[in-house]
Amino acid sequence: MNRITRRHCLSVMAAAATIAAPRWLRAAEAWPSRPLHIIAGGPGSVTDIRARWLGDRLAASLGQPVVVENNAAAGGNLGAQQVARSAADGYTLLMIHQGTATINPHLYPKLGFDPLADFAPITRFGIGSLLLTVSSALPARSVKDLIAQAQAKPGALSYGTPGIGTPPHLASELFTRMAGIEVTHVPFKGGGALATAMLGGHVGFSMDGLTVQLPFVRSGQLQALAVTGARRTTGLPDIPTIAEAGVPGYEFNGWTGLAAPAGTPKEVVARLNAEIAKTAATPEARGWFDAGGADAGIQSPEAFGEFIQAEYAKWGQVIRAAGIRIDG
Q1: Cα dihedral angle (283, 289, 295, 301), rounded to 10 degrees?
Q2: Which of 14, 122, 123, 135 is 20 to 30 A from 52 (CA-CA)?
Q3: CA–CA separation, 94 and 84 (whole Å)
Q4: Whether 218 and 286 share a structural domain
Q5: Is 237 exposed, middle or buried (0-12, 13-18, 19+ CB in 10 A)?
Q6: Could you tell me the residue range of the domain that residue 82 belongs to?
Q7: Cα–Cα distance between 328 and 109 in angstroms, integer?
Q8: Sign of the alpha-carbon torsion through 108, 111, 114, 118
Q9: Please, which residues have CB within 8 angstroms of residue 130's CB and are 6 or more apart in sequence?
Q10: Gap between the Cα atoms of 164 and 166, Å rounded
């Protein structure tokens, strides 16, 4: 066999091997070769803020643009559906959170996706307290003040949330029940709309992520009363926990993470996990999370999947016991 013939045969064999290689393997080897998209909640929400911060840094480490798209419709369900139905190629990701993965499935009779089967968990990215704040129009400077005002006029005091069934809604419901107060719930479409309402004095108090509320607390536009976790946060060391401030035993932590459609190549999931873990380990990231009263809480894909399953079971029990349900 002459040199030209041998060369031709080798070329044919290489091409055949490429064609025969599994499609997911070829995609993984080339990944990423185009921009990535992260679907997050509404503008100004915790998922939006974290997705944009992470997206900027992933773009630098992966060498491809990372575009954040907002889709907060139906409590985040439509955004989750969008990702669940996307190609499992690692280019469309979801900034998943407690609500979409572990609360909404027990609230919505027609969810449109299975949070335990339709996603490939990548890693948790942020876990920590929510912040209880009051509007500047409300003369309450402590949790005990807030409770006393609510008890003085049952039903007159209102609280806002980013939406019915969201983690801040359940955290607020838990607080009002444990505090023994009757207040009026005013749901908004996302954290940004809630913040605007709080600044305008349209609702008395709210619980939401520190990353959303801290800028307004530091500017004096909102008054921080307490954090919802079991311990004080690094970013606000002088702000007590709700348990310390007058409601013993109260505790609530919110979390977010990144997920891809089920069936995404394991090599792509592992690469994303490694890049995010590397980013989260930097002093910049530690400072950013500390300032927001949270920890990165990075997990392996397997551990994150187990965490979601445990949270799913936990909130299912709570919601069934309370009889909470959303029609739609």
Answers
A1: -80
A2: 135
A3: 9
A4: no
A5: exposed
A6: 16-128+254-322
A7: 7
A8: negative
A9: 167, 168, 171, 207, 208, 209, 210, 227, 228, 252, 254
A10: 6
**247 in a structural domain:** yes
Question: Can you give the pLDDT at residue 22?
Answer: 53
- For 136-155, give the secondary structure using H, E and C: CCCCCCCHHHHHHHHHHCCC
- Residue 117's identity, in one-letter code, is A
d(CA 53, CA 41): 14
pLDDT bin (cut points 50, 70, 90) of residue 294 is confident
Q: Which of 208, 210, 198 is nearest to 293 (CA)?
A: 210
Neighbours of 303 (CB within 10 A): 13
Statement: the pTM of the whole predicted model exceeds 0.85: no
Which residue is it, tokens 């055949």?
16
Q: What is the largest CA-CA distance in the chain?
A: 98
Residues 259 and 246 in one domain: no
User: What CATH number should be reported for the domain holding residue 221?
Assistant: 3.40.190.10
CA torsion sign for 148, 172, 214, 234 is: positive
Q: Which residue has the tokens 């311990």?
A: 231
The predicted-structure confidence for 184-234, as pLDDT tens digits, reads as follows 999 998 888 899 999 999 999 999 988 788 889 989 999 999 999 988 988
Return the residue matching tokens 């500017």. 219
Determine the pLDDT at residue 45. Answer: 86
Helix runs in the chain, H state only:
3-20, 23-30, 46-62, 77-84, 98, 143-152, 167-179, 191-199, 210-218, 242-245, 266-280, 283-291, 301-322
Note whether residue 6 is domain-resident: no
Number of domains in the chain: 2
167-178 residue pLDDT tens: 888 899 889 989
User: Quick one: which of 326, 300, 97 has its CA closest to 212?
Assistant: 97
Average pLDDT of the chain, as a whole number: 89
Looking at the fold, whether 171 and 25 belong to one and the same domain comes out as no
Report CA-CA distances (Å) from 239 to 78, 81, 169, 244, 295.
36, 38, 21, 10, 17
